């Protein structure tokens, strides 16, 4: 039984505020990619989807004269670190299992190696799934951050993904009990 659903995260005003900075469309799209990849890599679908949905929650808005300043962003960004901490705080507040909250926070921390000199991280399968899911939705020039989605459509997709996760859990439990 999941303690926190994707719907619970989406209903939270803190999530909405910070996810909107990097785009709700990108968060949902990455979460769908994570579901598919989690099954492929035999990773817990619930952890992968929640980490993917929250992976860019650490963004700051690097605006200068009304435009996103990529130079300023590249120089000062720590969104993976900030997002990891924000997501962990949020998950614990909503009652997430502590081990799960840690796994999700670490997957968010390592979804990009842009802040680590030299890169080359040894990722766990969950961390790899979240990084690949993010990459799968990326578009040149960061266009994936600007795609729009209505709150109504977002809520429908999130409910759909929650059902897919529940169904996956049920079928896994069934296989284990036979
Ligand atoms: Fe990111
Ligand atoms: Fe991203």
TrEMBL record:
SMART domains referenced in this protein's UniProt entry, alphabetically = HDc
Tell me which Pfam families the record gives: HD
Looking at the record's lineage, which domain of life comes first? Answer: Bacteria
InterPro entries, alphabetized: HD/PDEase_dom, HD_domain, HDIG_dom
Q: Where is the HD domain?
A: 23-139
Q: Which NCBIfam families does the record associate with it? A: HDIG
Protein name as catalogued: HD domain-containing protein
- Record organism: Exobacillus caeni
């Amino acid at each position: 039984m999941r303690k926190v659903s994707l719907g619970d995260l989406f209903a939270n005003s803190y999530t909405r505020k910070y996810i909107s900075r990097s785009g709700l469309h990108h968060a949902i799209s990455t979460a769908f990619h994570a579901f598919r990849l989690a099954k492929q890599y035999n990773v817990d679908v619930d952890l992968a989807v929640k980490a993917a949905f929250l992976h860019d929650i650490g963004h700051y808005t690097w605006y200068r004269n009304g435009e996103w300043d990529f130079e300023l962003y590249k120089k000062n960004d720590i969104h993976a670190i900030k997002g990891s901490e924000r997501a962990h705080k949020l998950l614990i507040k909503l009652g997430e299992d502590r081990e799960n909250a840690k796994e999700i926070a670490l997957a968010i921390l390592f979804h990009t190696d842009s802040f680590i000199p030299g890169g080359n991280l040894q990722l766990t399968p969950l961390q790899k799934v979240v990084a690949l899911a993010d990459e799968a939705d990326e578009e040149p020039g960061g266009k994936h951050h600007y795609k729009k989605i209505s709150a109504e459509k977002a809520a429908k997709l999130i409910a759909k993904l929650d059902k897919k996760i529940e169904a996956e859990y049920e079928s896994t439990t069934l296989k284990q009990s036979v």
